[in-house]
Amino acid sequence: MSGETQYYDELSVGDTFQTRGRTITETHLVTHAGNTGDMNELQMNADFAAETEFGGRPVHAPLTYSMMEGLITSDFRSEASNICYYGLDSMRIPEATYIGETISVHREVIDKREKAPGGIVTFRDEVVTTEGKTVLVCETLEYIRSRPTDRS
Fold it and tell me: pTM of this prediction?
């Protein structure tokens, strides 16, 4: 789906899209921790994390969300149609994400409302691993333009 421009008037409730995958690496985790200052023992200390209910080092949930947004931006959003990110209504982390897992995003249009020059589209975004584990679910709102009319 990469490269396709999706306009507000061309999206319908029930439409679904799938991004490509991206593998989460140690570098992603360390960079995120350094950028945010979140040096939690659970993510940064392998010995400590091994003794927790996680049994290892899960990545920060905001890192999973950020990678989701990157996949959506790469594979769905277009400067021609996207006005701006409009908000996040809910987010849940049903399972932990770990270094070495590959994630992708399944998104579904669940609501639309008009707002000139297009409208607000609500998506249900679900981040899944290649093993089928759901690691993040949220509702994302985007302000998207309608297709320009030809004025020739």
Answer: 0.90
